[in-house]
Specification:
Structural class of chain B: alpha/beta
Distance between the termini of chain B: 55 Å
Oligomer: heterodimer
Number of helices of chain A: 12
Radius of gyration of chain A: 22 Å
CATH superfamily of the largest domain in chain B: Pyruvate-ferredoxin oxidoreductase, PFOR, domain III
Strand content of chain A: 15-25%
Radius of gyration of chain B: 27 Å
Largest interface: A-B, 60 and 72 residues
Largest sheet of chain B: 7 strands, mixed
Shape of chain B: globular
Number of strands of chain A: 13
Strand order of the largest sheet of chain B: 11-10-12-13-15-14-21
CATH architecture of chain A: 3-Layer(aba) Sandwich
Chain lengths: 347, 613
């Protein structure tokens, strides 16, 4: 009788998949790059939430961050587009098939410099997708030039100091209509994980700005996007908890210490107060606090803003529920009688 | 009101010397004065009389105030291209009145606003002064509306002078206003009657021009090219339109939106089977169209030359990544300010080659509303069949002017959706290689995002990929892929709309053109034969890449004139890229680039001169 030991059973998620379909190719980014940690969090969050890999569209622009969709969700369709234009491609994909779960990964140059226009208009439209900005303040692939999120006073390796006002993608996002806005740090595993899971439960645009140090070009003294700087300046607004819709868990918390926010699919986030009062449903205060933090060089992280009432763009378009992409001809080509009637009107 | 005698210093014209149904009318007004309605009614009433007619609006880039001209050409033989000369003037614009009168053909006639006192300008034309302001006041009590209603008076005057049946004017007028604007129509009708009555009492017909009933228009309709193209897109089953406003393509998008709202909203649920986004710029417009097509939609954008320039990076990506996209380019003159409201075939070369690296794109060249309708459908089928951007190049003349057209035929063939694998296909095949040439035609298979199969996904990139869509920077992977793309482009030649060819026996000379150049070319060809005895073969290309028929046409002639509505002979340049040296040597260029629609006289003079005639 053979005594070969059976392999240990693979751990599967709620749709019966192990972690493998959620992984991707081996990363080609630098060792220690914050982006790799974000990729890991995306893999975990999608696996834990039981996201269907075939229903995901991964879209990016150009840059180090934009390479990362190749490193997660290997079975999903991916599209590495042109610099700064991922919002347009993603918008189009969602128009064609609003049932897609669209994850866009972009960088600070891609989003705040070349792609600022598209980013702003995506915010205005509240396109239902997750938009992750892997923010390191520099262009990696072209060897370390400043991007538009570089802070005033930040210094490059060459000694060059930025004197221009940075673009704060989160303030813009709250201001212009994204309905879920968060900021995190690639080194904050627990917080980023909750934010990603919450964004998967949100229907509407989620903008997640993640400070993600570039170990090659922007991790030195004088950088404001380095691991050391974040260690000293990150100020989490709250301790985050997340209960997905498919889990029925009672959460006990002391009165007044924790705010509960229910998301569209019934999932709940719990925000346990840390030091200061913060209400992520108060738009004006959120913007005010972000401005104030910038004055004191604090990097506020956490879920900055949630608005469940704002309709996603696809709702405004009043589309049929099926994907437009695969509607049969009977539903997309009007009849001969329709044509005849129109022609009559031109006689 | 005193009777205005008709001054006639030119030759006297007797009743037997009438010029019937063969003359041009020029209406000169100021932009924003509402003359478009009066002009369209006048044109349509001539059309309803069964006389072949064309109308061309020459307008400035301006909302109100600058000079505008509308030319109506009636021609019993059906020549509907622009005619440079005009025989009948309606002078409403003080700014241009003197020049307008000076340009009239000798023996012509001018209806003009009486206070302009034009009659001293020259003595060889007939004058019909009309006191428009005095006439409009009693028929239009509301002073604010008088500026708009005033123009209808000249329709009444012209009906009397040219012999247009008043019932036809009434029919065209009420049609123009539709059933919902009956009151406005009645108000304008009052102005027509006032004009007619004034002319009857005060003007004596002295010019030779007349409209008489014919039966040349059969079952035809009148429609502009942009509306026809929009209708073509609807019957092509378009599902996503992403666009950015730009003259002269905006009215295409707007017509399309109104057709979609009418025909493509589910009557029970009120839900739309289409999505329209007015994008923030042309980069986003084409990016959305490409994203939508990648995910399987029949998507499109419409624009003009400056828009295509902005779209060029994305268009290159669609070529390399093999994503269908339809771009309708309603061509106009050049960048920035100046002549954006004038016509040109300015993007012939650019659209065939646009973007960086080695890129080539199919381009369709419609010449009429019928072809705008049918080729818009071709464009969507070709884009999905060949997984690439397809251009349809129309121009301002075709897109924004009204044309006579045969009623459009309902498409018989089903929509071509190309090589798309479903989950069931993947089960059967056990997988697929995105960029593999399975069928030897250069066209690979694709899957759509959202296909419920673990093997459906692939990663889309620009230049560097293997045939399984894996990232690659290897030289053989790149060059093999480029060779396959060239093969795919070659396959396309046999699937494009075929050229229209009209040979003439013993013709040693050939003429080749595209798009709206056809009208002047067809007329010029007859002029060359009648006036110089020069027989010319004729070929109208309807698509790029060109087919072997072009080779054969050139081989059959000693010299071939290539007609371009641009300075740099773009159509000829495009031919040079493809043709053998001995054929290139036979090509001669005829170019016009003044921003107006090409006219036959210009062509005839140039070709006759080239031929030493």
């Amino acid at each position: 009788m053979s005594t070969t030991a059976a392999p240990p059973p693979k751990k599967t998620n709620r749709i019966g998949l192990d972690i493998l379909p959620y992984r991707g190719l081996k990363t080609t980014l630098c060792a220690g790059c914050g982006h790799n940690a974000i990729t890991e969090r995306i893999i975990e969050a999608c696996w834990e939430m039981g996201v269907q890999p075939w229903q995901v569209a991964k879209i990016s622009g150009i840059g180090c961050s934009s390479k990362t969709p190749a490193y997660f969700l290997n079975q999903s369709h991916g599209f590495n587009g042109v610099h700064g234009r991922a919002p347009a491609i993603a918008t189009g994909a969602i128009l064609a098939n609003q049932n897609l779960n669209c994850i866009v990964v972009s960088g600070d140059g891609d989003t705040a410099s070349i792609g600022l226009g598209q980013f702003m208009h995506m915010l205005r439209r509240n396109i239902p997708l997750i938009y992750i900005i892997e923010n390191n303040g520099v262009y990696g692939l072209t060897k370390g030039q400043f991007s538009a999120t570089a802070d005033v006073g930040a210094k490059l390796k060459t000694g060059m100091v930025n004197e221009l006002t940075p673009v704060d993608c989160c303030i813009a996002a709250i201001e212009l209509g994204a309905s879920f806005v968060a900021r995190s740090f690639s080194g904050d595993k627990r917080q980023l994980s909750v934010i990603l899971k919450a964004s998967l439960a949100h229907k509407g645009l989620s903008v997640i700005d993640v400070v993600s140090p570039c170990t090659t070009f922007n991790d030195h003294d004088g950088s404001t996007k380095s691991y050391a700087y974040m260690k000293d300046h990150e100020e989490p607004l709250h301790e985050l908890g997340f209960v997905p819709s498919y889990e029925d868990i009672e959460v006990d918390f002391a009165e007044g210490s924790t705010q509960e926010v229910e998301l569209h699919d019934g999932s709940r986030i719990f925000l346990k107060k840390l030091g200061r009062d913060y209400d992520p449903t108060d738009r004006l205060r959120a913007i005010g606090m972000l401005h104030a933090a910038a004055q004191t060089s604090e990097v506020l992280t956490g879920i900055l803003y949630v608005d469940r009432s704002r309709p996603a763009f696809t709702e405004l378009l009043n589309l049929v529920p099926e994907p437009l992409a695969t509607l049969p001809q009977e539903r997309t080509r009007p009849s001969a009688e329709d044509l005849a009637q129109i022609i009559d009107e031109f006689r | 009101m005193s009777a205005s005698p008709v001054v006639l210093d030119g030759q006297e014209t007797g009743g037997s010397d009438f010029v019937v149904n063969d003359f041009s009318i020029q209406v000169a007004t100021a932009n924003g004065s509402g003359s478009q309605t009066a002009n369209n009614v006048l044109m349509r009433s001539i059309f309803q009389m069964g006389v072949p007619v064309s109308g061309k609006n020459l307008f400035p880039s301006n909302i109100a105030g600058l000079p505008t001209w509308f030319t109506i050409r009636a021609n019993p033989k059906g020549y509907i291209g622009r005619k440079k000369e005009y025989d009948f003037l309606v002078a409403m614009n003080p700014e241009t009145a003197r020049e307008d009168v000076e340009k009239l053909q000798p023996g012509g006639a001018a209806v003009y606003d009486e206070p302009l006192a034009l009659r001293s300008i020259r003595g060889d034309v007939h004058y019909y002064p009309v006191p428009f302001d005095k006439l409009v006041a009693p028929v239009c009590p509301e002073a604010k509306l008088r500026k708009l209603v005033k123009n209808m008076i000249y329709d009444g005057v012209m009906a009397h002078l040219l012999g247009i049946d008043l019932d036809e004017i009434r029919k065209a007028l009420f049609r123009q206003f539709g059933t919902r604007k009956k009151k406005a129509a009645e108000l304008n009708w009052g102005a027509v009657l006032a004009g007619k009555e004034y002319a009857e009492k005060n003007l004596t017909k002295a010019d030779p021009f007349r409209i008489e009933r014919m039966n040349a228009n059969g079952n035809k309709i009148i429609i502009d090219g942009n509306t026809a193209a929009a209708l073509g897109c609807v019957f092509a089953g378009v599902t996503v339109l992403t666009w950015y406003p730009i003259t002269p393509s905006s009215s295409l998008a707007e017509a399309l939106i109104s057709f979609l709202e009418r025909l493509r909203v589910d009557k029970e649920t009120g839900k739309a089977t289409f999505a329209v986004v007015q994008a923030e710029d042309e980069l986003a417009a084409v990016g959305m169209a490409i994203g939508a097509a990648w995910a399987g939609a029949r998507s499109m954008t419409c624009t003009s030359g400056p828009g295509v320039s902005l779209m060029s990076e994305f268009i290159g990506l669609s070529y390399y990544a093999e994503i269908p996209c339809v771009i309708i380019d309603v061509q106009r003159v050049g960048p920035s300010t100046g002549l954006p409201t004038r016509t040109q075939q300015g993007d012939t070369l650019k659209n065939a080659l646009v973007s960086h690296g080695d890129t080539r794109h199919p381009v369709l060249f419609p010449s009429s509303p019928e072809e705008c309708f049918s080729m818009a459908q071709n464009a969507f089928d070709l884009a999905e069949l060949f997984q690439t951007t397809v251009f349809m190049n129309t121009d301002l003349d075709l897109g924004m002017n009204n044309w006579m057209a045969e009623p459009f035929e309902y498409p018989e063939s089903p929509l071509e959706r190309g090589k798309v694998l479903t989950a069931a296909d993947l089960d059967r095949l056990g997988g697929f290689a995105r960029y593999k040439d399975v069928d030897g035609d250069g066209i690979p298979y694709r899957t759509l995002p959202g296909t419920n199969h673990s093997l459906a996904g692939y990663f889309t990139r620009g230049t560097g990929h293997t045939d399984t869509a894996a990232y690659s920077e290897r030289e053989d992977d790149y060059s093999n892929n480029m060779d396959r793309l060239a093969r795919k482009f070659d396959t396309m030649r046999k699937h494009l709309p075929v050229a229209e060819i009209a040979p003439r026996p013993d013709a040693r000379i050939g003429i080749v053109c595209v798009g709206t150049s056809r009208y002047a070319t067809e007329e010029s060809r007859d002029q060359l034969l009648e006036e110089y005895g020069l027989a010319c073969g004729y070929m109208r290309l309807r698509a790029y890449p060109f087919s072997e028929e072009l080779d054969q046409f050139i081989d059959a002639h000693e010299r071939v004139y290539v007609i371009d509505q641009n300075r740099d002979a773009q159509l000829l340049m495009l031919m040079r890229l493809d043709l053998a040296v001995e054929r290139i040597a036979k090509l001669r260029s005829i170019r016009y680039y003044g921003g107006l629609p090409l006219d036959a006289r210009t062509l005839t003079a140039r070709i006759a001169s080239e031929e030493g005639l």
